[in-house]
Structure formats: structure tokens, C-alpha cells
Amino acid sequence: MSAVAPPDEQAARVEPVPRAWLMSSALMHGFGRLLFAVSGWTIVGHKPDLAKYVLIAGPHTSNWDALWLIGAAGVERMKVCFLAKRSLFVGPLGVFLRALGVIPLDRGQHHHLVERAVDWMRRADRFSIGMFPEGTRRRTEGWRTGFYRIALLAEVPVALVYLDYRKREIGMFPELFHPTGDLERDFARLRELYEPCVAARPQGCSPVVPLHNHDEAP
Questions:
Q1: DSSP letters of 18-78?
Q2: Sequence-ordered list of residues with C-beta below 8 angstroms from that of 119, at least 6 positions apart, any chain
Q3: pLDDT band at 12 (very low <50, low <70, confident <90, very high)
Q4: CB within 8 Å of 30: residues ≥ 6 apart
Q5: Contact 55/117 with Cβ under 8 angstroms?
Q6: Mean per-residue pLDDT of the chain
């Protein structure tokens, strides 16, 4: 029979809840304001007044999407931990991303993220996690459902951010999305909201339908 680790050792093994301390700083607020002042883009709406939520942004077809998203989060002083592929976490860029609270994601191990995120939600007083549901800039057959499962299991709403390159704006839809467990019906509502948005590369847009039998995250 294997020995049981003492309580203090078990606690040491618990993964710390990610913190986006730099994302809400004066530095990122200033960066975001400068970005939108010189770019001609605008921010529509405001961050949700919630302690815990999942945030998704779409459509995602370009690296520019992440810049607008991080810039808007800085302006709004949002303490959101975003996801990014682990290959970006090298050198000074990796240090900066970690300070922002960006969570490195290993390709091929997406199935672990849902349970980790739900655990973070349950242990923290305040926590939010953000992602592009397509999971890639390339066109795919639909959206991954990890964000949906996190929100459903953690019993938190989803804040819906959109990017529209025709209007040159990034915004927050007024309504919060509450998963019901009826995947097809819930995605029908997401389609209504996101299909009118014009992506950076419209030809690369993924349809707003749930991917079945696929990695759970984003």
C-alpha cells in the first residue's frame, strides 16, 4: 500500500490559480489607449461586472485579433487570463506573456484544460479565462467546445467579445451567454450574434457550429 502524502505536501501540489496582474495595470491601460487612438479602431461596450466568467472572442483569422483583444482588455483593466500556444513562451516574450497572465497551452493536451479551468473557478474568489473558440487562425469545421464546458461545469456565464474589421471595432455583446446544456440550440444563438461580424480574412472564417469528438479546448 502506497503512503499518503501529508496534507501540507498535497497542498503544495495544487496548481496555483493564474493571475493577470499586469493586464489590468496602468502600463497596459496606457498601451491600449494609445493603440486605439492611433489605429482608428474603437471599443464598444464595457467589461462585465462579474467575479467569475469565461470570455470568448471571434471571429479569429489573424494575429491582429490578439492585439486588439489585449489592447481592449488593457483599456478596460480586465483581469482576464488568456490562452496562447506554449511555443510563444520563449525569452523576453515568454516573461511578458506570463506577467500578463497568459496561460501556455500544449497542443494535443487540450483535454486537460477544462478540468483545470473549472478547478481554478471553484477555488478563486475572482477568476476569468479568455480564448478564441476556433483555437486557430486557420479555417476549421467549427468551434471547439471547451469554453462551453468550462462555463457549464463551473456554472459561470460567458462574456461575448466580437471583432469587426469592416466597422474597425472590437466590442462586447450586451447579453451574457448562459450555457443550458443544449449544445445545438445554444450554438444557434451564438451564430446569430457572430455571423454578421466581418473577420480580418473572411475567407478563413470557421462556421459557428460545435465541433464534436474534438479536443475540448479552447
A1: P--TTTTSHHHHHHHHHHHHHH--EEES-----SEEEEEEE---STHHHHHHHHHHHHTT-
A2: 15
A3: very low
A4: 74
A5: no
A6: 90
**Cβ neighbour number for residue 90 with a 10 Å cutoff:** 10
pLDDT per residue as tens digits for the range 59-111: 999 999 999 999 999 999 999 999 988 888 999 999 999 999 999 988 666 66
Joined grid coordinates for residue 189 = 444563438
24: its cell numbers: 489590468
pTM: 0.89
3-state secondary structure of 201: coil
What is the grid cell recorded at 168?
474597425
CA distance 192 to 97: 33
Q: What pLDDT sits at residue 109?
A: 60
Q: Determine the Cα–Cα distance for residues 195 and 26; give it in Å rounded to an integer.
A: 34
pLDDT of residue 14: 78
- DSSP states of 86-150 as a string? GGG-SHHHHHHHHHHTPEEE-TT-THHHHHHHHHHHHH-SSEEEEE-TT-SSS--SSB-SHHHHH
SS3 label, residue 85: strand
Cell 465541433 -> residue: 211
